[in-house]
Amino acid sequence: MPAPSYSPAPPRTWAEISFSALKHNFHCARQASHCQIMAVLKAGAYGHGMVPVAKALEKEGLEFFGVASALEARKLTHAGISTRMYLLGPTTAEEREEIVIHQWTPSLSSLDEIQHFNQLAAKHNIKLRVHVTLDTGMGRGGFLPKDYPEAIATIHNLSHLTLEGVGSHLPSADEDQVFTQQQIQLFEQTVSTSPPPYIHIANSAGLLDYTSNLCNLARPGLMLYGISPTQSHQTSLRPVMTLKSKVSLVRTLPKGHGISYGRSTILPHATRVATIGAGYGDGYPRALSLKGAQVLIRGARCPLLGRVTMDQIMVDVSALPLCQAGDEVELFGPNILVSELAQKSNLISWEILTGITPRVTRVYL
């Protein structure tokens, strides 16, 4: 017998990705920074889907895509992306030959890296363009300012490397204005004696709240996806991801009935309870349990009840007498910002976005 014909079931939980919002935020970054742009696409473009996001942004014209590893650069290259790949952190020895062969751009943090890249570039007869990382306070990688002259002198004396840029990173641009201003000043003083073609320090918070007379390249990440690191700029950005699910069940439960694991919520009165097909297995944080989180159903905010479970959550829909199974639910998006959930769960927006799991279908609009 032939197999019966049927339409596959739609996903219970999905993430709608708005390319129009993405492009709007990209142009906000360009206008705010007055610089060329390196769009940070690491960690699957912050959970939005690295290849589709890269293809959408490439049409806008930019200098680099920032990635975390050779694996991410390879994925974009194999997808046909021609914009240059920039490795944002120190590389492992095993990654470097692939980086050289594809002429991706490494950021160098040690003399050992410099020498090894030169050896590999000579082996393949390639003149590799490189950037140097300057550690002005992040403590994660790079040369200290006192060691910067030796680093650039070493590169200039090697046959197969070309110093194309220097960058640093701002660890507290959204928290500590005084330190950040000092950091930018130190960076500019160190670099100004022999500036290479590309000079960059600003992440999203850096380009939104600070200025530099020397930098000509900016590295926006979070703001590209429509979330501002500081609340003052949120109104100019548009959230790119809307995480959605559906109501699977609506019941009226009696006073005294427990909700979810541990029975941490006991209903104080008869309550209409909607069950929604999303949980921490989809990336909706368990840390939102009992923190006053809400979801949006039929245009109304509905409070979360009990603990978030792996595949389901429960919410109070007593104020929505027409709520029924099949109703669409916004878990976060333009009406409930992911930054609101981050604050309630004591997480950060970056962590929530990159934690949206593979079983959540991305739908590109």
Q: How would you describe what is shown here?
A:
There is one protein chain. With 365 residues, the protein is of the alpha/beta class. The chain has two domains: 19-227, Alpha-Beta Barrel (TIM Barrel); 241-364, Beta Barrel (Lyase, Ornithine Decarboxylase, Chain A, domain 1), CATH 2.40.37.10. It is built from eleven helices and 18 strands. It has helices spanning 19-33, 42-47, 50-58, 70-78, 96-102, 111-123, 148-156, 177-191, 204-209, 338-345, 349-354; strands at residues 14-17, 36-40, 64-67, 84-87, 105-108, 128-133, 161-167, 198-200, 217-218, 241-253, 258-259, 265-266, 271-276, 294-297, 300-305, 313-316, 328-332, 361-364. The strands form three sheets. It has an eight-stranded parallel beta sheet with strand order 8-7-6-5-4-3-2-9. It has a six-stranded antiparallel beta barrel with strand order 10-13-16-15-14-17. Strands 11-12 form a two-stranded antiparallel sheet. Strand 7, helix 8 (177-191) and strand 8 form a beta-alpha-beta unit. The model has no long low-confidence stretch (mean pLDDT 96).
What's the CATH class of the largest domain, please? Alpha Beta
Unreliable sequence segments: none
What is the chains' assembly state? Answer: single chain
Overall pLDDT metric: 96
Tell me the CATH superfamily of the largest domain: Alanine racemase
Sequence of strands across the biggest β-sheet? 8-7-6-5-4-3-2-9
Per the CATH scheme, the topology name of the largest domain is: TIM Barrel
- CA radius of gyration is 24 Å
Number of helices: 11
Structural class: alpha/beta
Helix % is 25-40%
CATH architecture of the largest domain: Alpha-Beta Barrel
